[in-house]
Structure formats: C-alpha cells, structure tokens
Amino acid sequence: MKKFILKTSKIIASAFAMTMIYTGIASAHVVVNPKISTPGAWETYTMKVPSEKEIATTKVTLKIPSKFEFVSYQPVLGWKFSETKAANGVVTSVTWSAENDGIQAGQFQQFVFMAKNPDAEVNGAWDAYQYYKDGSIVEWTGDEKSEAPHSITNIVKDTTVKGENVKATENTTVKKDTEKSGSSNTSLVMSIVAAVLSVIALLVAILRKK
Length: 210
Known about the structure:
Blueprint: H1 2-26, E1 31-33, E2 36-37, E3 42-50, E4 57-63, E5 69-73, E6 79-85, E7 91-98, E8 108-116, E9 122-126, E10 128-132, E11 137-140, E12 151-155, H2 163-209
Parallel strand pairs: 2-12
Antiparallel strand pairs: 1-3, 3-8, 4-7, 4-10, 5-8, 6-7, 9-12, 10-11
Helix pairs in contact: 1-2
C-alpha cells in the first residue's frame, strides 16, 4: 500500500507540474502593438511571437487589416521577409521566414514594421499565422474570447493633442487584460492546488488506517 501511495503521489506531482507549465504557456499569444493609435498616422508596429510548443517556429504571416497601408519593415537577422500584394498593388500580407533555427521553445521574437493608419476611426484586426517546424499551424484569427485571438488596434480621433491620454488609456487597457488573465490563471492554479491537497489528505487517511 505504501508503494502504491508513493507512486500515486509522484504521478499527482508530475501532473501538477505539467499543468503549471501549460498555464504559463497558454497565456502567451502572438501580439501586435500598439493597441491604440491615431487616424492617418505613420505608426511603428511591433509583432511579438512566442514559440509555445516544444518545437521551433519557422514562419509567421501577418495579414494587413483593411484600410491600413503597409509601408516598410525592420530587417531581422536570420529571417527572410516577403510580401503579398493585391492586383492594385496594395500589400495584403507580410511573411517572415526563418533562414536558420527559427524561434526555439521558450523563446520569442519581435518583428517591427511601419504602416499608415486609416484616416477614419476603425478597429483593425491583425490576423496572424504561426508555422511550426513539424508543419503545424496556429491561426491567431479569433476574437478576444477565443483560444487563439488576433490583436486589435483601435484607431481613434482626438488623441493627437492629448498624447499622454492615449498612452494612459492604452496602458489601462493592457493592465486590465493582464489582470483578467492573471486572475483566470490564479483561479485555475488554486483549484488544482486544492484538488491535489484533497487527494494527498485522502491518501494519508488511508495510510493511517493500515
């Protein structure tokens, strides 16, 4: 019985550790910043790509939202850049392909580019496609409640004069999203801890009766 309990305890501990790792990984997404910008601005955007699997990310494709004009990109060592254009010459998507090992597990890479914002207020959705070395693809195209959400940049007026307000609003939004994600992860971890402690208590009770 003691051997059984010891073995069971090891299994529970391993499962707990894996869940903790998964919880940390699940909170990482492909993200495009900034979240707020002004109409008509030539904005510098940054796409952050984490590699969530145990294999390397070898390619990332980003679709340019409607009415946004892609202008230029910042070269990244070890990555080849390409773009796709519509019949009218407008860039519809851009791709970074790894020339070497790509983004390894536990790492992330940032890709910087410039785009001209629409002249009117809109919400631009950045759909991203993450390609892994094994051929699998993660499509970051869902809404904010999905498991693979796309980033959204809100183009809003009346912020050129009150630039600090834009920054404050953006920081507040990011803070709220972070707090929401942190709260969700904390609840999950606490639930797992409670379950593990309950099982351990049960095993101890059984052992004492023997």
